[in-house]
Amino acid sequence: MNLLRNLYSSRRSSVIARRGVVAPSHLLAGQAGLGSSAGYDKTVTKSLVIQAFAKLNLGLRVLGRRPDGYHEIETLFQSIDLHDTLTLEPLEQPGIELKITSPWPLSEGPENLVYRAAGLVAAKLPNGVRILLEKRIPVGAGLGGGSSDAAATLVGLNELFQLELSGADLHTLACELGSDVPYFLVGGLCRGQGRGELLEKLSTQFEGYSFVLVSPQCALPTEAVYREYDALRARGWPRPAAQLCESVDCANDLEEAAMRLCPTLRGLRQALTQLQPDLVGMSGSGPTYYAGWRSAGQAELWGHQLAQRGYTVSSARPVAKGHELVEKTNAP
Q1: Which end of the chain is more exposed for a tag (fewer CB within 10 A), N or C?
Q2: Model pLDDT, residue 15
Q3: Residue 306: which of 225, 216, 222, 176 has the closest Cα?
Q4: Is 236 left (phi over 0), alpha (psi -120 to 50) or beta?
Q5: Distance between alpha carbon 288 and the CA centroid of its chain, in Å?
Q6: Distance of alpha carbon 129 from alpha carbon 325, whole angstroms
Q7: Are 260 and 244 a contacting pair, CB within 8 Å?
Q8: What span, in angstroms and rounded, lies between the C-alpha atoms of 162 and 176?
Q9: Model pLDDT, residue 44
């Protein structure tokens, strides 16, 4: 399967991870102080603020079921400026405190990926940590919000406590948390294979695009969509043909399964296709759809019209990273 063949063959950059080979640390370093050499002094760093960006899947192909129960996929990841914000603060006492501000109900305990990410490095911390998470990325929307938050937590703790974890160390920890988490250590435009953890960094191609994101009022758990996909395949359902847009195969093998679980997606797909965007498709396991234009004016115009028709619409632009350290406060 040569998904996105033209794009990959002509614009290939560095390999982030191959099968059985972990990313070299220099490819992941430099995004938020990774691999700092100084020892941690709790009197120096008071707090750290890091943004965790969402992602789009510009096409997703399911290549088969793996022996470990996961699905083998091929996809193109692109990070966008829609983001959550995490504030990390050292505590005097041991432990993990997670506080969340969110329009959606979320656990603040071990069920949360942010809490689990902190738990993976808790033994390395000189004391506890408080994490304040402000959610903007919709939950269960196919935009990778939880995975991005987990990756940002790993990066932020590495910087806050100067743990000296290499890029390879962070990649290994990210793989323990979920299939998409390693991508958010890198961000930008990447080809994803395996479960999504095998990444190939690509030269940026969509920096001038403007995206409209449309999120229906239904959440689709990833596991449920894959179960429906497996059931469809067992009944002989054929995978969709290639859907080329801007040299990218935007077809998503999970789209039919998502539509059966959330029938309103069919009308949404039709409405977006009629606008003739340069890029269009469902992101991940859904239910969020994206439509991208080279013209910011067109994106604004069509986004406004979609909102008037009752859809929940937001705008986004591509970014070249999966996270960004925006503030670090030192104690006097």
Answers
A1: C
A2: 40
A3: 216
A4: left
A5: 13
A6: 17
A7: no
A8: 21
A9: 55
Interval 104-139: pLDDT, tens: 999 999 999 999 999 999 999 999 999 999 999 999
Query: If we measure between CA atoms, which residue out of 205, 143, 203, 195 comes closest to residue 174?
Result: 195
Q: What global pTM score does this model have?
A: 0.87
Set 84, 149, 169, 180: catalytic member: 180
Return the closest-CA partner of residue 239 out of 74, 62, 109. Answer: 62
Residues 284, 291 contacting (CB under 8 angstroms): no
What one-letter code names the amino acid at 231? A
Spatial CA neighbour of 148 closest among 82, 69, 231: 82
**Residue-level pLDDT at 29:** 41
| pLDDT of the residue at 332 | 61
Q: Which domains does the chain have, with CATH numbers?
A: 5-35+42-204+320-330 (3.30.230.10), 210-316 (3.30.70.890)
Q: Which residue is it, tokens 């022996």?
A: 67
* Residue 215 identity (one-letter amino acid): S
Concerning whether 180 is annotated as a catalytic residue, the answer is yes
Q: What is the pLDDT of residue 17?
A: 41
The helix, strand and coil proportions of the chain, stated in percent and rounded to the nearest 5, come to 30, 30, 40
Residue 124 CB neighbours (<10 A):
13
Kindly give the parts of the chain with pLDDT less than 50.
1-2, 4-43
Question: Does residue 201 have an active-site annotation?
Answer: no
Contact yes or no for 287/225 (Cβ under 8 A): no
Return all residues near 248 (Cβ < 8 A) that are at least 6 apart.
4, 7, 58, 59, 76, 279
Total Cβ atoms within 10 A of residue 21: 11
**Pairing mode of beta strands 129-134, 96-101:** parallel
Q: Which residues pair with 88 in a beta bridge?
A: 48, 131
Of 51, 47, 42, 40, nearest to 164 by C-alpha is: 40
pLDDT for the residue numbered 53: 98
Distance from C-alpha of 177 to C-alpha of 213, rounded to nearest angstrom: 26
